Structure prediction request, 241 residues.
Amino acid sequence: MIKRDCAGIIISFIGIDGSGKSTCSKYLFQLLQDKHKVKYFYLGSPRTFITKLIFRILIKNRRKKTLGAEHQSAQPIINKKISFLSLLNTYYKTIGNYMNARRLERKIVRIKKLCEKGYTIITDRYPQNEYPFVNDGKKIELNNTVRRSHFLYRLYKREQQIFQKIETISPTIVFKLHVDAQTAAMRKPNTKTTNQLKKKVLSLTKLKFTHSHVIDIDANDDIEEVKGKITTVMQSLNHFK
Prediction:
C-alpha cells in the first residue's frame, strides 16, 4: 500500500552518475503523460562555466607550485596567488551551493503545490539530508575559511535549514537505481574516479527515505530491461490502473 500525503504522487529516481536516472525518469514521464496530469523536474546541480574556469586556474597554479619556481624568491608570490585563488574558490563554491539549495527549495515547494492539485510529479534525483557531499546531499563544507567568515557561516547554517525543510516533503515512491562503480565509469567516463563512485554506491545503499516507498532496481542490466522493470512496478500500483 502506497502512503500518499496529497491528491497527487511524487515519483523520484535516484542513483549514482551512470545509473540511468535521466533516461528512466524521462521514459516514465512519456509513459504517463497521455493519461495523467504529469510534470517533470530535474533536481540536480547545474554546472557553470565560471565554476569550471576557477577550478582550472586553481589546478594550473597548484601544478606550478609542485614543479617549483625557477627562482626561490618567486615562491612567496606563487604561494600568495594560490592562497587567493583557494579563498576565491571557497567563496564561489559556498555561494553557488547556497544558491543551488535555494533553487531546490523553490522547486520542492512548487512540487508540493502541484502534488496537492493532483499532479503526478516525476523527478530526476531528489535531495536527501542523510549523507552530505554525495547523492544530492548538502554541499557546503564547514572548513576553516567558512568558520572564520560570518557571511559564509550564515550560508552554511541556512543550507542546513533548507535541507531540513526539504526532508519534510518526501517523494511518494523512490526508484533506487543500483549500478556498480565499474559499470557507471564505463557509461559516464571522466565524471568521477572509481573510488568516488564506490563511495556514492555505498551511501546510496544506506539511504533510507523513511517516509517513501522505496523500490530497488538493478540498473546494471540493459536499459530496456530496466524500463521493463519500472513498467511492471507502475502497472501494479492502483493509482495508475
